[in-house]
Structure formats: structure tokens, C-alpha cells
Give the backbone structure.
Amino acid sequence: MQSVSSQFTARTSKAVRPISWKVLISWDKAYDAAVDFFTIGSSGIGGTDIIKGDGSVVQEWDKYAFNDYSDRVLSVEVNREGDPPVSPITLATATVVLDNHDDIFTPGNASSPLAGYLLSRRPIRINLGFGVETIPKFVGITTGKPVVDEKAKTVTLQCIDFLNAIMNIPLDEELMYVDYRTDEIVSALLQTGGLSISQFDLDYGGVIIPFAYFKKGSKIGDGLHDVVEAELGNLSMLEDGTSRFLNRASYANNVSVWNFDKDNVIEKKALGTSTVINVVEVFSKAREVQAKQKLWESSTEIVLAKSGNTEVFIDFKDEYGDLPVTTADDPDYVSSATTSLYATNETRDGTGNTYQASISLSSTSLFSTGMKLVFTNAAAVDVYLTRLEIWGTPAKVANDIYVRETDAASIGTKDAYEERPLSPPVTNDLIQDEVAATSLAKMVIADRAEDDDQQELIVKGVPQLQIGDVITYSDENVAGETYFVTRINDIINSSGYRQLLRVTKRTIHEYFAIAISSLGGSDELAP
């Protein structure tokens, strides 16, 4: 839960509340790198410095010059949720409807002071609260141009948070990590996406990944998803714009932060059997770097053209397809069983002059699953590469993992849902062993095997509530049921302020931690 003043908390609980909001947009993306936190005695009133909130870091997006369009707001909706039901990544979107009676937001209106700036990817900030006190709810960018409704004289802005934008960035080079903790890989990927280390807050990862490989052209988000899922953790961009990574132990706190009952709940409904999952399959081909060995050898002779260069391209493969390689020896003109080598002859059958002195290896380039060699032939005749071997250290599949977990009571004896599998199944090659795969499968089943595990609550809005918070629900039939918040949908319009919450029952496991847990105690061995 976001930290707020006691007055803010009191106003949240009142029957009558003065709802307020802030919508700030930087249409021209003007940027001031000198922006810092406001300091009494040195910052000027009305200047660019910002008031310090919960965070201790000025984010890069804080430094845009924002204009306040709060008086034009007709409705605001902010939605924050994960990727159900595993939810390694939590993303936020927003929809803002603004009054456009004077066509100020109409693209193509040359008389608008915003002419030329009504484009996509404009920074936007949204705050919600009560009276003069508001707190951050969303930091991100618009997607597409404003959508104009000429009849209603409104425009609609669709927005995504900055983490969402980072997730969609393609990798322009392959990335490879050997024996890195999950938080170290998350840090590296976020930095690849353009963040500095001061812009995110990462828990210490509880899992070491022996080998992680992300292909050129794949999305940063694909890598982040798999790394965080392998940790059984969560990555999100908080309401103030700070990226936050939580490790597998982060949800051990089961202390409720807010109570919901008949006085502040508008509607409650179970999501029914459509949300039930009682069968989970997990697949992983976890790789580890092996000792140096032969990776490839030529099956046919290669012609080295006379008086010139010849490029030789090699693809490394094994029974699983492309084979990532961390190192590969440059071949020498030797005959050895433990290093890369090549041999040459003037004839295909390996006889005749070798022209060894005329043949040289000009350059080599290693591309994870392939290699490029450039040979120079200074001789006046074509020469054959009659033997070529490449030795190196491959990252081979060390654990071909398949786990299938079911809930027999849910399938048959208790609720008779039949089998309701998670679809698609979990497929993640960074999951390292069957223990971790089983843990993940059991977590999903524990959350989703019964039709009352998932609830939706429509409540009087609590702006400070965050994903992962624990809440308590009571009514005339139940007293103090505890749930985790897995989705928050804030809605402000002419009807007032309400939230749609998705909440989930969850069993908390205290995992064994070195130097914290006692041998023979009740804590479980972590996967």
C-alpha cells in the first residue's frame, strides 16, 4: 500500500469524500535534466523542482515539462493487473477522456496551441485523491493520436505505463548470462531497455540461472517474463514510476492493510467455474554450460578461392535445435583432439600440396548459435579445406523437465469440475529443476482450484491500495476472509469514484532461509 498521510487515510474511509484528480501531459516532450526534488531555501516557488513523495529517486519521466489538464477531465480509468494466473509481470494501462469543445486536442487543427504535438508516445501522469491531496496512480505514455468524438466534443487518450513500453523493445543484439541471479538479469534487461540503476528497486534474487540466452530480435519483455517467472516473483512499475522486482519470499506477509464490508463494498461476485484451474503442466529445457568439447565438424570439403577471402558460416545445433555456445576456439593448422583445427590440400581427397603457408584465418565472429570464419588464400590456385573442427563450451540441455500437477478433490470428489487445465501450459526454459516447476504448478492450483478462490469486488475507491496487498472481506455470511489483490481498476466519472478489484485466496508458505530459519523448524525448503 502506498504511504499516505493520516488525513488521507481518514478521508478514504469517510462516507462523503471530496474526490480530486490530476492529469498532467507533456505534449511537446520538453525536457529539463536539471529537475530535482524541491528543497526549502534553494528551490523557487513555482519552479520546475518536484515535491518529494514516497520515492527517493527523480525518475527520467519526472523531468518532462507537464501541463495540467485536470479541469478538462470527463473520466479517468486506470487498470493494473498481472498475467493471470502466474502473474510474473504487472502492467498498467489508462484511458482518459477530455473535454475538447474548442478542438484544442484535435489533430490537424492548425489553430490549436498544441498543433504538431498531438502525436503518440506523449508522457502522461495521473494522480487520484481527496481534497488538495492526491497520490500517484499512473506514469506512462499515450499510444496513438487522440481519438476525437466530434459529436460529443471529446477526445480519448489510450495509455500504457513505461514498463509496458520497455517490454515491447526488441533486442538489437543477443544477450547471454552464465550463473547470474534472477535480480542481476532483471537489472541487465531493464538497463538494456534504457533505465538506469537508480530507476528501479530490486529484491535479492533467490535463484541462480546457470544459463540464460535471449535471441536478437526477441522482446525485452519476453526475457523479463521468463526470468521473473523462474524466480516465482513479480515485476511491476509502481504508481510513482519506480520499477519494482519482488522475489519469491515477498508474499510471505499476510497482514491485511484494508477491511472491506457492507459499508464500503458496492457489489461482490464470485467468478465461477470459468476461472477454475486444477491441472497445470510445466515444461522446461534448462541449459547449463558444459566443458569444452567438439561442437561442429565439416562434412564436405570447402573451397578457398585463390588470391582472396572465403567466408565460412557455421550453425551449432543438437537434438533440441539451435545450440547456444559461450566460447569457441579459433581453429589452428594442427591435428589435435582438444582444440579447433583445420587442414588444407590442393585436391579434394586430401592429397597433394597443403599450401599451409599461403592459408591464414583472417577473422572469427561468434554469434551464440553460430560462427563466421574468414580464411585468406594467398596462393594462385584454389585450395580445399579438407578438415575443419570447432571446439568450445556449449550450453546444453541439462534438465528436460516435465511436471503435471492436479487437484484430485477439485476434479472429482469435491467440486466435480472435471479437468480444467491451465492453457497454454507454462513453458519456460529458465525454470531449473522439477522442484521449482512443481512449486509453480502447485501455487497456481492452490489459488485457482475452487470456484470461490477468485472474487470480484466493486468498492468505494481506495487510491493507496496496490497489487499484492492483503485485504479482509466480511459480510453477513463470512467474517474476515483474507485475499490478495491481483487487479485494480480505478474508475472516475460522473458517477463518482469506484474500484473494481480482483482478489484471490492464497496459501502462504514460509520458505527456509539460511541464517534465518531453524533446522528442524516449520519452514519449508524453498524450490
Summary: Confidence is low (pLDDT under 50) at residues 36-58, 509-527.
